[in-house]
Design a protein that fits this description.
about 1000 residues; 22-stranded antiparallel β-barrel
């Protein structure tokens, strides 16, 4: 008995002594992972409610938490996942905690370059274009595929030449002489706006378009026209630990879309020449209806032999009916191949890709051939997370000669491209009864263009490198040291060669024996920033703050020569250039440059505070110092504030939840700037250039400079509402914005006694205000069926409020800027019609009276006639049925006008232009009194009038994609992860009033630009 009691007492004592030991601190270990992919989640906030202990998971998703209570309620929080609570017992350890994605919060992650967060916690106007939307686009310049994808974003493509960049504007034009392109960022590195031919879109993961101050102000003076942030693909650790290999190839063709091109054939041309009764044209000179012939400049009656010869000659001409499109254009072939590898583990992720694109242009001699390589590597080692992104590519671009592409935003009337070297001009000017086998010679547009094709080369070999290294060192769970260094390097090696034995080689002014041009230009952009990031979560509160210092340096240079007197035995090489002397007229032309050359130093502060899932406030402050601005005004501060409110998170919104899936309001206001208003980075200084004075070398003043030059400043306000309905089946977003640009870069007129016509200065103010709407809905959402449609619309009202001391500023001879009108408003003498009695053109004077006399002084501004479209948008449709996918994009613009030069000259029967081919409807030219027609009599000269400013509106079926995911059997699935076959079409159909190939362009004047092609491709995508 005593032994039993002793044993019981011993056990009780042991238990009592054990209890205090159990109640002491212990370490709870666990791992947090994604509930779907089972991959680890880094940076998860794990806390114990009872003793407030907390910790952040490491790169492998693991944590160790010190707890003291026998029972602990764990709270697990991570951005983009639903908050989870779970009770831990004394026996629990080595936990595996799965988290479920928060669909509402993670509608998408918004990357703004300096920061990223869920869209639910953004305060800015940001449109995101995912990789799936731009997949299978075999384009040479990625900006072309952005049209119609995001509200407020406009892309005008100046040419169908493969690889050429377009004019991109976000929420309208905000400058007269300054840059209007947005800032482009690739993995944290700013890149040049015109160097997209060497970028491979297959490497893109997403494109974020930043439009308001809250999203763009952190970029300060570089963000005046918005920001486009491109994120490239990163590696992903797969559950099976294997490397994913993906190969995609596609092939196809492109051809000209010429639904509104209607030049005369031979029969129509000869009929037109009879109407003109011009003895210098064969249709009348040899006509049986013409009783006379010209002999030594004297009109003489024809003989019977003359009539017989004339009939024979006209019959021979009628046997020739050349469609010059078949000789100057072609069905061009395209092929591309992409191979990428992706994989990794909980510490290192990698993505490696190589691609090849060979795209022929529809004009002979034009093409783009590109090779690209990308390697993205992410590594986490202890507290240090490193991300290295390397993109290397080379592109060989071949061009046609003398294409009529005007500078963005303006062109000279009578402008480029109207030469016999330009095959696009020859499509309009070449006569149909001329044979392609005719020898090149004066006026033989078609044969001359073919001669240039055979005997010239215009090529640009480009090298592009975009490299960035991002470092993140975790000092503590809340404080990180961050930094980025990156380069954007571009080299352009340009060649322009003209064979000395060709027709045009013999016309070369310097020596009449061809020419050989070579130039090399380089541009190096460097960025380096570093600072601290603080992120703290406590309870329902979250605070993120960034303090950074940044340097942006851009340096470029170039040199080149043009040599003459080529040796016919040494073609297309500098070795064939003759030594130039004062006697042989072979003096070479030498060129050189040391621009761009500028430096931007900045200090940046960015902060965001979020409370629960209800409120978010953001603020940014940036100080920029630019070498492009005089020292007096060099440093400026830029700022933005923004806020968002998730209304449904409020307790009073219970009734609203029956109607809305989500409802969010946001607003922002801020200041951004623009420093680049000069053509040169040294434009504010007095610049000199070499000159010759009295036979001696000298310098002469080239630009007057302006030491008081200042920045353009943009003040932007934005308010918006975002809403979802029917369990988020319908999603909408509505933005209202107002953007005021002060201190416009303009060329102020000077007295010619100063030696200069203008001086660059800051004058005036422009306003852009508008509304943007996005609607997207899942019309059908079933297991096998899914149909999603989307519509984005934007309206922008542009108005010049004042030009300071200037009354009006001419962009060129066709458009101008003046207060009360939109920037770039056309002005012209107004066309009133044709006098049926005399066939004379009727114009309106400045005060509205009719006249038959053309006077350029009667030109007036034409309200509503602008080249930057006020209305723009796109419609998308995505249909999935089992293994089938169909997607399409239609884009449109409305309210855009352009001066249509080709159409003007194709309707000019006067003596200056009648020797060229004309539009078929010129057969309805005025001939006799009483004719009510659209075209004046051929005896009257042709002038530029309001009728030549044509609507450039269009509705396009821009993209159509059809894909089929091939089912894989049990045996095949062991080796192949996925197999997709697809067909893709681009620029398939256009609905427009425009007369010509395509109205889409980047400026106000249509000249003889390379037509936009229609492209159809097919391919396969297989992953292992």
């Amino acid at each position: 008995m005593k032994l039993m009691l002793s044993s019981i007492c011993f056990l009780l004592a042991g238990l009592l002594s054990f209890v205090p030991l159990y109640a002491q601190d212990r370490l709870l270990k666990g791992r947090v992972q994604d509930g779907t992919s089972h991959l680890p989640i880094t940076g998860v906030y794990v806390s114990c409610k009872e003793n407030h202990a907390n910790v952040i998971t490491d790169s492998s998703g693991r944590f160790t938490l010190k707890i003291t209570n026998q029972l602990c309620t764990l709270v697990i929080k991570s951005m983009g996942y639903e908050t989870k609570q779970m009770t831990v017992t004394p026996l629990d350890n080595d936990l595996v905690i799965p988290l479920t994605a928060d669909v509402q919060e993670m509608r998408e992650v918004v990357v703004t370059g300096y920061t990223q967060q869920s869209r639910n916690k953004t305060t800015g106007a940001v449109s995101t274009i995912k990789a799936a939307a731009i997949d299978n686009n075999p384009v040479g310049s990625f900006d072309v595929m952005l049209q119609g994808r995001a509200p407020g974003l406009y892309v005008g493509t100046p040419t169908g030449q493969p690889g050429e960049a377009g004019r991109v504007t976000i929420r309208g034009l905000g400058s007269i002489n300054g840059d209007t392109n947005p800032l482009y960022i690739v993995d944290g590195v700013p890149i040049a706006a015109a160097s997209f031919a060497a970028l491979n879109t297959d490497d893109f993961e997403s494109i974020n378009v930043l439009k308001d101050a809250a999203s763009t102000a952190p970029y300060g003076s570089r963000a005046a026209n918005g920001v486009v942030v491109i994120t490239t693909k990163k590696g992903m650790a797969l559950p099976d630990g294997k490397v994913r290999i993906n190969y995609k190839t596609q092939m196809g063709f492109s051809e000209v879309n010429s639904s509104k091109w209607d030049m005369m054939n031979t029969s129509q041309r000869l009929q037109f020449e009879e109407i003109l009764q011009d003895p210098n044209l064969p249709g009348w000179a040899y006509s049986a209806n013409n009783p006379n012939k010209i002999v030594n400049g004297v009109s003489t009656p024809k003989t019977a032999a003359d009539y017989a010869f004339g009939k024979h000659y006209l019959d021979s001409l009628k046997t020739i009916n050349t469609d010059w499109r078949k000789y100057l254009l072609r069905k061009a072939f395209t092929q591309s191949h992409t191979l990428n590898l992706s994989g990794g583990n909980d510490r290192t992720l990698f993505y490696i890709a190589a691609s090849y694109l060979n795209q022929e242009g529809i004009a002979l001699n034009s093409s783009l051939k590109r090779y690209s390589l990308r390697a993205n590597i992410q590594n986490t080692s202890g507290r240090l997370k490193s991300s290295l992104s390397v993109g290397l590519s080379t592109a060989a671009v071949r061009y046609i000669q003398d294409e009529g592409v005007a500078p963005q935003g303006g062109a000279a009337v009578g402008g480029g491209g109207i030469t016999e070297k330009n095959p696009i001009a020859s499509l309009y000017y070449a006569l149909p009864y001329q044979s392609p086998t005719d020898s090149a010679g004066p006026g033989n547009f078609g044969s001359n263009a073919l001669d240039v094709y055979r005997n010239s080369l215009r090529k640009d070999n480009q090298i592009k490198a975009v490299v960035s290294l991002n470092e993140d060192f975790r000092l503590s769970s809340n404080l990180h040291l961050i930094g980025t260094v990156g380069i954007d390097y571009q080299q352009s090696n340009f060649t322009n060669y003209l064979n000395p034995d060709s027709y045009y080689g013999a016309q070369e002014p310097n020596g009449n024996r061809g020419s050989y041009q070579r130039s090399l230009a380089t541009r190096l952009g460097l960025i380096a920033n570093g600072g601290i990031r603080y992120n703290k979560k406590w309870g329902d509160h979250e605070l993120e703050a960034n303090l950074l210092a940044e340097m942006n340096r851009i340096k470029g240079e170039g040199f080149g020569f043009t040599g003459y007197g080529l040796n016919s035995l040494l073609l297309n090489t500098p070795a064939g250039v003759s030594q130039g002397t004062a006697d042989n007229n072979f003096i070479p032309a030498i060129s050189g440059q040391t621009t761009p050359d500028n430096l931007l130093l900045s200090q940046i502060a960015i902060a965001r505070y979020s409370y629960s899932n209800k409120y978010t406030l953001s603020a940014s402050l940036r100080r920029d110092g630019s070498s492009q601005v005089p020292a007096l005004n060099r440093y400026k501060y830029f700022y933005a504030v923004g806020g968002s409110w998730n209304v449904l998170s409020e307790s009073f919104a219970e009734r609203l939840r029956t109607h809305f899936s989500y409802l969010r309001l946001r607003a922002s206001y801020g200041l951004t700037g623009n420093a680049g208003g000069f053509a040169s980075d040294y434009g504010y200084r007095e610049l000199y250039a070499p000159a010759n004075y009295a036979g001696q070398s000298a310098y002469e003043l080239q630009t007057p400079g302006n030491p008081a030059y200042n920045w353009e400043m943009n003040r932007i306000a934005d308010v918006a509402v975002e809403a979802g309905f029917f369990k988020n089946r319908l999603r909408t977003e509505l933005d209202f914005y107002n953007r005021i640009t002060d201190g416009l870069f303009v060329n102020r007129n000077l007295s010619l006694t100063t030696g200069f016509a203008t001086i660059s200065s800051n004058e005036g103010r422009i306003r852009n205000r508008g509304v943007e709407l996005m609607i997207e809905g899942d019309i059908i959402k079933q297991k096998d069926w899914k149909v999603t449609a989307g519509l984005n619309l934007a309206y922008n009202q542009n108005m010049v409020l004042t030009l300071g001391n200037e009354r009006k500023i001419f962009a060129d001879e066709a458009s101008m800027s003046l207060p009360g009108y939109a920037l770039g408003t056309f002005y012209a003498v107004r066309w009133q019609g044709v006098d049926p009695a005399t066939g004379a053109p009727i114009y309106l004077t400045k005060d509205g009276k009719t006249t038959n006399t053309y006077n350029s002084g009667d030109a007036v501004p034409m309200a509503g006639k602008v080249y930057d479209p006020p209305y723009k948008g796109g419609f998308t449709l995505n249909v999935t049925y089992k293994q089938f996918e169909v997607s399409l994009l239609m884009s449109f613009i409305k309210g855009m006008s352009r001066l249509n030069y080709p159409n003007l000259y194709a309707h000019s029967g006067d003596a200056n232009y009648r020797q060229y081919n004309q539009s078929a409807d010129m057969l309805n030219i005025w001939q006799k009194p009483g004719d009510h027609v659209a075209y004046a009599g051929a005896q009257y000269p042709t002038f530029f009038t309001s009728r030549d400013i044509m609507s450039a509106d269009y509705l396009k079926l821009r993209n159509l994609s059809i894909a089929y995911h091939v089912p894989l059997g049990t045996n095949l699935s062991k080796y192949i992860h996925g197999l997709k076959v697809f067909a893709y079409g681009q620029n398939l159909f256009s609905f427009m009033k425009w007369r010509g190939f395509d109205p889409e362009d980047a400026n106000d004047i249509a000249q003889y630009e390379y037509p936009m092609p229609r492209m159809i491709t097919g391919g396969i995508n297989v992953s292992f």
